[in-house]
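Morning run. Coffee first, then this:
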Amino acid sequence: KYYDACEVKPAIICNGGFFSMADGTTCFNYQDDGEIISTNSEFNEGMGIVNGSLTYGTLGKLPFTDFISAYPVLIENGKKVSITAGAEINYKARRTVLAYNCDNVYVIAVESPGMNLAQLQSFLLQLGVTYAINLDGGGSTKILHDGKSITSTWYNRAVDNVVAIYLKPKTIYRVQLGAFSKKHLAEA
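And here it is:
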């Protein structure tokens, strides 16, 4: 519904972080266009936009315009993070992950039969990511690319938050050359 309602369509959209299956409320920290949507004092690490770039950090310590908490943080500074927060979800499951390195941003969907968090961390390090956070998972794991689902099995479950990625159009420069014997022809 969010994608359909967007006037300018995101290139990639996926369900965001964890939400309560009982009432649909957000579990962690979210910030949208500078407005804090939800807060949770325990889970302040995550990713957001700072000066137009995806940045890992702590909410309140960096000037994020948009932010989503990690549950849990998977990779920090190119190394596996010890799984303490999120230990109860450390089983094979479908998952969505947001990650990046100096060259790329990754939005990853893990399909059935899924991965546990340690397997996921190893996979992410093979990709060469510097930072990675676990977003949502399970039956609501869904990613759209240009409006089409790229995840196979999913449940049309209402989620209360999404991560939408808008790609910047590439600037194309063209150079036109000409040889003229007279100045007025060149000016024309």
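DSSP finds three helices and 14 strands in the chain. Good start to the day.
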